[in-house]
Amino acid sequence: MRWLDRLACALLALAPAFAAAQAPDAAALYGSHCAACHGAQRLGGMGPALLPQSLERLRRDDALKVIREGRAASQMPAFGDKLQAAELAALAAWIYTPVQPAPRWGEDDIRASRTFDDASRQWPARPRWNADPMNLFVVVEGGDHHVSLVDGDRLEVLHRFPSRFALHGGPKFSPEGRYVYFGSRDGWITKYDLWNLAVVAEVRAGLNMRNVAVSSDGRFVMAANYLPHTLALFDADLNLLRTYAAATLDGARSSRVSAVYDAGPRHSFVVALKDIPELWEISYDPKAEPVYDGLVHDHRMGEALARPGYLGVRRTPLDEPLDDFFFDDAYRHAVGTARAAADGSTSAQVVNLDVRRRIATVPLGGMPHLGSGITFDWKGRRVLATTNLKDGVVTVIDMARWQPVKRVATPGPGFFLRSHEKTPYAWVDAMMSPAKDTMTVIDKRTLEPVRTLQPSPGRTVAHVEFTRDGRYALVSLWENEGALIVYDAATLQEVKRLPMAKPVGKYNVGNKLARSEGTSH
Question: How many other C-beta atoms can be found within 10 angstroms of the C-beta atom of residue 211?
Answer without folding.
Answer: 23
